[in-house]
Write a structure and sequence with these properties.
Elements: E1 3-14, E2 17-28, E3 32-36, H1 43-50, E4 58-63, E5 66-67, H2 72-76, E6 79-82, H3 94-104, H4 109-122, H5 138-150, E7 156-160, H6 168-183, E8 187-191, H7 195-201, E9 204-209, E10 212-217, H8 219-226, E11 230-235, H9 238-248, E12 257-259, E13 264-268, H10 273-285, E14 290-296, H11 300-308
Parallel strand pairs: 3-8, 3-9, 6-7, 7-8
Antiparallel strand pairs: 1-2, 1-4, 4-5, 9-10, 11-13, 11-14, 12-13
The protein binds adenosine-5'-triphosphate and magnesium ion.
């Protein structure tokens, strides 16, 4: 398999701010790679370098086999980009916006119009097609911007936070479109603040922080890195907490963590639901009154927290762009 994106040692500085600090990344052709990272990690900067909008100070990058610096013009015809902030012309209608993109890509008059109509239908914008974009809602703009990125059927597509500002239904719709595109052979680099989205869509995930990749792998590989399953339980009293800890010691595969302020116990385990049933049996035999008990697998949120020291920022949720 060839690689659609190969970046080596990318550095980008803004004055004293180092936005990219030796970023290495490889994205195999035909896959979805999720770029995750906290605000300011360098995700948008990386996307801008890959899409020739920004020149890195150091390092190199090839996209679709072309050097982003030396073959920028040719590369632009092979990629699509939907940026973090929708880039649509307010004074034009939805149709005119897409038609214009088609002309810019030299699709020709007839083909541009046809493609514009096709995409408007696909993104549920047919009814609004001939209205000026200034009257569109945030979600409609986002969809139009995404449609714009698809006009030229790009071989490599860059989506910077494609579903930020979309309602849950539109987000699901977007996921379908994305999955369909990738089935058709498009390679996708996606940045997102929604870990659930990366978990669902991405074949591989690169977590970046302070301008460099700090972890890479499939969602499962990353989850395994932060640790396996655990039992979480709450009891009413501290006496019961220590009884429970003693009772469950035999099931633990690592250090048991007891939080005596919350009367909460975290027990690392393996074995899935059978270990949960066994735990309940043992606690019952010791007459420990359990308020709450459950088996947890690490989520990507846990991964993110473990790696970057902060939780993923969902503050952009619902924001209209
Ligand atoms: N044009 C600019 N001028 C100065 N500093 C910039 C500029 N663009 C980005 N930066 C800085 O570079 C760093 C990386 O920014 P970038 O936009 O790439 O982060 P991001 O990961 O996309 O964040 P977010 O999740 O908020 O979109 C930040 O510290 C940011 O302040
Ligand atoms: Mg960004």
């Amino acid at each position: 398999m060839t690689d659609a994106i190969v970046a080596e040692g990318l550095v980008k500085r803004y004055g004293s701010v180092v936005a990219l600090d030796g970023l290495d990344l490889t994205v195999p052709e035909g896959t979805i790679t999720g770029l995750l990272g906290p605000n300011g990690a360098g995700k948008t900067t990386a996307v801008r370098v890959f899409t020739t909008l920004l020149e890195a100070d150091e390092g190199s990058a090839r996209v679709a086999g072309l050097d982003v610096r030396k073959q920028a013009d040719e590369l632009r015809t092979k990629i699509g980009l939907s940026g973090q902030y929708a880039a649509v012309d307010d004074n034009l209608t939805g149709f005119e916006n897409l038609d214009m993109v088609g002309r810019l890509y030299h699709l020709g008059r007839a083909r541009s119009r046809e493609r514009a109509r096709e995409l408007l239908a696909r993104f549920d914008l047919e009814d609004a097609a001939d209205r000026p974009v200034k009257g569109y809602s945030g979600g409609m703009r986002r969809r139009l911007d995404l449609a714009g990125a698809l006009v030229a059927k790009p071989t490599v597509l860059f989506l910077d936070e494609p579903t930020t500002g979309l309602d849950p239904r539109s987000r699901l719709g977007m996921w379908d479109v994305i999955e369909e595109l990738v089935k058709g052979g498009t390679t996708l680099l996606l940045t997102t603040q929604y870990l659930e989205e990366a978990d669902r869509l991405a074949d591989q995930i690169a977590v970046i922080d302070h301008g460099r990749v700090i972890a890479e792998g499939t969602a499962d590989q990353l989850k395994d890195q932060v640790g396996g399953e655990r039992l979480e339980l709450s009891v009413a009293t501290s006496a019961e907490l220590s009884t429970a800890a003693g009772t469950l010691a035999g099931l633990a595969v690592g250090q048991i963590d007891a939080d005596d302020r919350q009367n909460h116990l975290t027990v690392p385990v393996t074995g899935g639901s059978s270990v949960l049933m066994e735990a309940i049996r043992r606690l019952d035999a010791e007459s420990v009154k359990v308020l709450d008990i459950g088996l947890r697998r690490p989520t990507l949120d846990d991964v993110f927290l473990a790696l970057t020291g902060h939780v993923a920022d969902d503050s952009a949720q619902g924001e209209q762009k």
